[in-house]
Amino acid sequence: MPDTPMPLRVYAEEGTLEIPFEALLAYHGHAALAMLALTYQGLRGALALLETDAQPVPRVELAVVSGHPGPGVRDACECVTRAVSRQCYRVDTGLAGARYGSGRMSYGFILSRPRQQVHALLRPGVLPPRFFELLGAQAPAAAREHAALRRQLAAQALLATPQSLFDYTLTPL
Fold it and tell me: Quick check: 98 and 139 in contact, CB under 8 A?
């Protein structure tokens, strides 16, 4: 992987916890690398919007609703927020917006804490049409091409800003 962005910051049990992309990679592996990297960047932008006075959000306050059921999204959210193990993670493929490819799911998520939430939607064009054409391909050549494309997309995502990848809406609860 190329140089990665600044680590994500959350407030954990005894203070600020910095979580670099490499921690997510070690936790998840390479299977859904593109979505892992995109979700990492999505969380970067969303966490910054939820901070108060530039202080990291307490991890224990965070809940996630994901429009995408895949393991890259789930594992990125779990590694950063622990929402899956705290039973504060829910998949809702009917989540509004960011429907690309087959349209069966949303490439977006809601990150919330008491009194406010951020809806993050992957921007159109971040995932190219070829990504969706190859999704679930069984032929060995197509599977290799999709793996290479996932690596390329992950590298590009890690070099981008969260705001160039996602549209964010912050709302009070």
Answer: no
| Helix extents (H) in the chain | 21-28, 33-50, 71-81, 129-134, 140-159, 162-165
Average pLDDT over residues 65-76: 96
Domains of the chain (ranges plus CATH)?
A: 8-172 (3.30.1330.130)
pLDDT at 119 over 60: yes
Angle between helices 21-28 and 33-50 (to 10 degrees): 140
Name residue 46's amino acid.
A
Q: Which phi and psi angles does 168 have, rounded to 5°?
A: -115, 140
Contact by Cβ (8 Å): 62, 88: yes
C-alpha 148/C-alpha 25 separation (Å) is 16
Mean pLDDT on 63-79: 97
Closest listed residue to residue 38, CA positions, set 158, 118, 169, 168: 158
Single pTM value for the model: 0.95
Whole-number Å distance between alpha carbons of 152 and 33: 9
